[in-house]
Amino acid sequence: MSFQYKMNNKRDEKKFSHYSIFPKSKRGQGLSINAIILIVLGIVVLVFLILGFALGWGNLRDKVFSSNNVNTISQGCQTSCLTGAEFDYCSAKRELKADGINLKDVTCNYLAQKQPRYEIETCPSVSCNVIISDTVSEEGAKGDCKLNTVGKTIQYFDATENTLISLTCTAPGTVSRI
To answer: What is the pTM of this model?
Structure first.
């Protein structure tokens, strides 16, 4: 029997047709569940990496895994004190989060002097040129601006905004926001 005969024979036609090469199902092949799960995990990892490099790994850890950053701020304040970094200890603004409380723009110096419950230690090796006022308003802070404090920074805690406000004493009884 010749090859030509087999090709023309109706009985053997299915053996050599395109049906024997391709699947007989006309439905398309879908993605398997495993492939979909791997794609989703890949996207999550990619987003995590992008956020880590964009925000910094320390900030990402604090924002994603913890609502309490007292230990992080305490370590930062301790490092500032040990290295004698006056700006970092006295003026660098931080955001403290603990027990549902969110204190904005606080400094290590303020936390050490006015918020003892967070156990931030005072730093005798750093001399802060900052006056921390016991008042809760700008008007009260103006009263702390006297002749011998011109040029110094006065800080008071605004409890309505949970924010430490920094002012510069420009003249006795006159302050300007920093």
So the answer is: 0.62
Domain housing 42: 30-65
What's the pLDDT band for 78 if we cut at 50, 70, 90? very high
Alpha helices for the chain (secondary structure H):
3-8, 13-16, 33-55, 57-65, 70-83, 86-90, 108-114, 138-144
- Dump pLDDT digits (tens) for 105-122: 999 999 999 999 999 999
* 169, containing H or E segment: strand 163-171
Same structural domain, 74 and 123: yes
- Give the residue from 80, 116, 88, 107 showing the smallest Cα distance to 164: 107
113: burial class by Cβ within 10 Å (0-12, 13-18, 19+)? middle
